[in-house]
Write a structure and sequence with these properties.
Layout: H1 2-12, H2 17-20, E1 25-45, E2 48-59, E3 64-79, E4 82-95, E5 98-116, E6 119-132, E7 145-156, E8 163-174, E9 177-178, E10 191-192, E11 195-207, E12 212-230, E13 237-257
Parallel strand pairs: 1-13
Antiparallel strand pairs: 1-2, 2-3, 3-4, 4-5, 5-6, 6-7, 7-8, 8-11, 9-10, 11-12, 12-13
Length: 258
């Protein structure tokens, strides 16, 4: 147990070494966010489902719209314990007075699950790639961005109840973050990887009818990223700011399963 605890603490304190050595500043923020979404699922043939989704996200303590996301994908149940799926998501970013900088995201999902008594445990690995439509310096921001998201969840089937409570924990690990160099015009390009987000969540699903379900949830997010800035004319490193943000996310989603 002691060895496991030490390993867990080491994991939580893992940071990008190349960025850590040249950090020039740190910012800390917190925000309350909201999500409202709807999902549609249609089993085309046995074990193969088509899924579509629409979600609106709020930020700035629920005062403004952050983005709208629309997605479509397929999921195939290979056996009782394993699913594989792929989906595409269009992300429309909202800025004051306009919708700008849409992004395109593709996900590949692998999920295994097992039931133990009235508990069901699931481990999902999601390989996520996001393409930006604005122009960026690849030494400052990755495009496309590659993320590995690992999520462990547990839900409990309450006897004779429409409610199903659950817990989850998720890590986001960058796969191609730009490594910090002293001069991007002289030094070779290389990538770095580190855990950028820790998420813990609690929620409950409510079965309205056989086809209609609701999901109420709360996520606690700790997000850490590095804002790398170079001098455009000479390419010299100007600053590396570590940006820490704690996000309290409250959400509700509706699902219709045909």
């Amino acid at each position: 147990m002691r060895k496991l605890l030490i390993a867990f603490v080491a994991l939580l304190t893992t940071v990008s070494l190349s960025a850590q050595n040249v950090i020039t500043g740190v910012t800390n923020q917190s925000d309350v966010r909201g999500r409202v979404g709807g999902d549609f699922e249609w089993e085309i043939v046995d074990d193969l489902s088509l899924e579509a989704s629409l979600e609106m996200r709020l930020n700035n303590n629920l005062a403004s719209v952050d983005r709208l996301q629309t997605g479509i994908g397929l999921e195939y149940k290979t056996c009782k314990y394993f699913n594989i799926g792929a989906d595409y998501v269009l992300i429309n970013i909202h800025e004051p007075g306009a919708w700008k900088r849409p992004r395109h995201r593709a996900n590949l999902n692998l999920e295994g699950n097992i039931k133990v008594g009235r508990f069901e445990f699931a481990l999902r690995e999601r390989f996520q790639t996001t393409f930006r439509t604005d122009s960026v310096n690849r030494y400052e921001k990755m495009n496309p961005e590659l993320i590995l998201r690992s999520r462990l969840s547990a839900e409990y089937n309450i006897r004779h109840s429409r409610w199903t409570p659950y817990l989850l924990f998720e890590l986001h690990n960058t796969l191609n973050s730009p490594a910090v160099v002293l001069n991007y015009k002289q030094d070779p390009y290389s990538v770095d990887n580190y855990i950028t987000r820790y998420r813990a969540g609690v929620g409950a699903k409510f079965k309205v009818t056989r086809n209609h379900r609701l999901d109420f949830y709360y996520y606690f997010d700790y997000d850490r990223s590095y804002n790398i800035d170079y001098k455009g004319n000479k390419g010299d490193l100007k600053s590396v700011v570590q940006e820490n943000e704690i996000r309290h996310i409250f959400g509700i989603s509706y699902k219709f399963k045909l």
